Amino acid sequence: MKFVTQLLLALTLIVGGVASPAFAGDADPLFINLTTDNLHRATMGVYFGKEQFDRGHPLTIFLNDKGVLIGSKAKSAKFSVHHKVLTELINKGAAVHICSMCMSAYGVKEKDILPGIKISSPELTGTALFKDNSKSLTW
User: Fold this and answer.
1) Distance of alpha carbon 45 from alpha carbon 43, whole angstroms
2) 87 — alpha (psi -120 to 50), left (phi > 0) or beta?
3) Are 53 and 94 in contact (CB under 8 A)?
4) Is residue 11 within a helix (H) or strand (E), and if so which, with residue range?
């Protein structure tokens, strides 16, 4: 009987350790990988980030693939709401990075990106992505 009890305890500890949910700390950083120019998905990503930033989570939004279009002033007619929110976030201390390779692929010029958006590099973006306790989401 003692063996069965010990076995059950061991299995409980193993399964509990493997299946336990991950919880975000009160101030864990959030990294949003925004790859789309779809209005609904882009809005979801930007506003989700804003809501978490407002709750105290440091925020980095990485505009890549078609997401670079959201950071372009040349697309302000389509993304005016996004530009407003991104500008507010930047002014409050959030980071917005943009992929230079993707800018080239989609014709986004450096002079056209919103003020405060930083052109990414492996060091800049990697530092945010791999920050201790960072959580990441993609839209």
Assistant:
1) 5
2) alpha
3) yes
4) helix 2-19
Structure tokens at 77: 């007619």
Unique residue bearing structure tokens 């052109």: 119
The 118-119 sheet, strands edge to edge: 118-119, 95-98, 59-63, 30-34, 135-138
User: Tens-digit pLDDT profile for the chain (139 aa)?
Assistant: 565 555 455 545 555 555 444 555 679 999 999 999 999 999 999 999 999 999 999 999 999 999 999 999 999 999 999 999 999 999 999 999 999 999 999 999 999 999 999 999 999 999 999 999 999 999 9
What is the reported pTM?
A: 0.82
Helices 39-54 and 76-92 cross at an angle (nearest 10°) of 10
Structure tokens at 19: 């299946």
Q: How many CB atoms sit inside 10 A of residue 33's CB?
A: 18
